[in-house]
Amino acid sequence: MTSTANPALRARRLVLHLVCIVVGAVIVVPVWFGVLGGFKDNGQLSVNPLGLPDPWVPSNYTDILTSEVFWRQLGNSVLIAVTGTFIMVAAAAMAAFVFARFAFRGRELLFTLFGVGLMFPFAVAILPLFVLLRSMELLDNPLGVILPQAAFGLPITVIILRQFFRTIPGEVEEAAILDGCSAFGFFWRILLPMARPALATVSVLALVTSWNNFMLPLVVFTDQSWWTLPVGVQAFQGQYSDDTARVLAYVVLSMVPALGFYAVAERQLISGLSGSVKG
Amino acid sequence: MTRPSTVPETRRGGPATDPPGPGTARRRGARPRPGRRRVLAIFLTPALVLFLLLVIAPIVVASYASLYKWNGFNLPQNFVGLDNYTRAFGDPTFRGDLWHGLVLIVLSLTVQLPVALGLAMLLNQPLRGRSIYRLIFFAPYVLSEVTTAVLFNLVFSPNRGLGDSIARWLGSDAGTIFADPDTVLFAVFMIVSWKYFGLYMMLFLAARQSIPKELNEAATTDGAGPWQAFRHVTLPLLGPTIRISVFLSVIGTIQLFDMVWVLTGGGPIHASETMAVTMFQYGFRRFEVGYASAISIIMFLLSFVFALIYQRVVLRRDTEGAITNQGDNR
Q1: Which residue of A has its CA nearest to B244?
Q2: Do B290 and A117 form a contact (C-beta atoms < 8 A)?
Q3: Which of A77, A122, A157, B299 has its CA 20 to 30 A from that of B328?
Q4: How many domains is chain A partitioned into structurally?
Q5: Helices and strands, counts by H and E, chain B
Q6: Judgement on whether residues A39 and A155 belong to the same structural domain of the protein
């Protein structure tokens, strides 16, 4: 398509831009309302929900940023997401290696079992999981969230990684073995480094899923000091239900890490999603 | 690897789909090297233990518990057979859940996915700043359902919310969409769409960009208009992605919890309640764990049966195509 100054073409472009801007506004305006609302007091919010704050009231944000609670929830979320992702990717990579490059009896059966695991949502397992974690004394213990989350992330990760491991030519492995590499050595020194892009993709997906998980931490942590950000945000809303401006500030601050992560890992995230669906 | 295609692909599995790797070489060759068993055990154990203990076992326990009247403490003793299931289907709340699920699924398929597809086609055009649009449209996907729900609770909060003042400006009272049983489900749908349409848009866009340019150029040379080219070239080639998106959307809707729990708690008067919310209410608020387990199992069976039928009827040609192509390459 040549970019002539054709008026019909320009009009068409204008319409396309207009559609994009309207959709973009629907996305951005609620968030913008939140960001500005956090700088208002409730009186300003009822008189003037969308305009600029007058005067600017930074106390909602500063109160939260100087409170220990917010940072602890942020820390808990980071701890749980990072540890869970690490455990999950490590276990999945090991299993995917075996599924991709070894032939053994029952391999397809086991792999199908993982495939069926895709159909199990948290909601189905949450009650017995709760009972199980209670009997293992893992309630109010971060492992009570980390381990089930890792387990539920395994199926999709094993499937993606196995697919990727299969694309690495057999000659590479043969050469490694001729050079005296053991299976462990090949996995650790050759396969994992070669699979770095795939590992990054599944890690980013797992981090986002874990970060956003709500149901599991909600039931596992009765002790507030373990709450993660989603649980904390919901509780904060309940606690300050009359103080809209303050809750807005809390929501906005809890969005910052996720959006910051998105800004950094956007490419990885998108390639992962399209890759996992397209196959 | 597509999610649902794994099942038949692996079932057919074996040498036909295996790339000639060391695995097959070994199978054909001499006896397994000593220590191979040990390698298998070491590599498989962590994943298997996690998966069997924390995914499979709970599902088995849930199906067992669903046959008992049980409060979740001690061991279930009061066997009631399928009573929990018949109770669910006789319960107006649960029947409402099924209806809400159906409404949400229909809305997603008729509104959300087509809009996402349209925007993907739009952003495929040479348009200045389209990467910024893309970035913005997808951004809500990384926000948790909880933060999204709390934000929109405040956007639509009476008197101080944005929705309220826009509604007043338009001369209606849309500020109360969450309080009105007639509108609450649509409000939930709107907010779910706000969060997820970007995901589907990205999937469609990725698929669109993998279609070779020559195909559309050839269609245009043969005299096809833009609409005809889309209808007869692009759309069929997007088929696999569309079918997967429909699948993800349906399964996701069956399991909807966080958003509803935080936005409305299922209210007013159960008008926005979903199966997962009812399950949670009974399981963790009223401690009727047996009944709640039955609801979980119904959720699972609905997802599973849908997946199975969809797999057989709709996705079949995608996977068959994939396998035939592989055969052709040999």
Answers
A1: A277
A2: no
A3: A157
A4: 2
A5: 19, 2
A6: no
The helix or strand, by DSSP H or E, that contains position B84, with its residue range, turns out to be helix B83-90
Q: Based on the fold, state whether residues A52 and A78 are members of the same structural domain.
A: no
SS3 A62: helix
Three-class DSSP category at B129: coil
Kindly report, residue by residue over A75-89, the tens digit of the pLDDT.
Answer: 999 999 999 999 999
Count A/B contacts: CB-CB distance under 8 Å: 324
Rounded to whole angstroms, the Cα distance separating B94 from B290 reads 15
Q: What chain B residue is nearest to A47 in terms of C-alpha separation?
A: B160
CA distances from B51 to A109, B2, B46, B105, B177 (A): 14, 20, 8, 30, 42
Instruction: Give the residue on B whose Cα is nearest the Cα of A14.
Output: B127
**Distance between CA atoms of B276 and B287, rounded to whole angstroms?**
15
Interface mutation target, options A14, A39, A105, A119, chain B, most CBs of B under 10 Å = A119
Specify the number of domains making up chain B: 1
Predicted ipTM of the assembly: 0.91
- Residue B141 sits at the vertex; the CA angle it makes with A155 and A87, to the nearest 5 degrees, is 35
**Is residue B66 situated within a structural domain?**
no
Residue keyed to tokens 């709450």: A227
- Token readout for B188 is 């939930």
The answer to whether A30 contacts B151, with C-beta atoms less than 8 Å apart, is: yes
**What's the domain range around A152?**
72-273
Segment A94-146, tens digit of pLDDT = 999 999 888 888 888 888 888 888 878 788 889 999 999 998 999 999 999 99
Which DSSP state fits A240?
A: T
Whether residues A49 and A147 share a domain: the answer is no
* B173 is a domain residue: yes
Q: pTM for the complete prediction?
A: 0.87
Cβ within 8 Å, pair A151-B304: no
Provide the residue range defining the domain that includes B97: 92-255
Instruction: Give the CATH number, domain containing residue A201.
Output: 1.10.3720.10
Q: Give, for B320, the enclosing helix (H) or strand (E).
A: helix B316-329
A147 and A84 housed in the same domain: yes
Closest by CA position to B181, among listed B107, B106, B267, B97: B267
Terminal-to-terminal C-alpha distance of chain B: 20
Three-class SS state of B179: coil
- A 10 A CB-CB count for B267 gives 16
Flag whether B223 is in a domain. Answer: yes
> Is residue B315 included in any domain, yes or no?
no
- Helices (H) and strands (E) counted in chain A, each on its own, are 14, 0
CATH number of the domain bearing residue B109? 1.10.3720.10
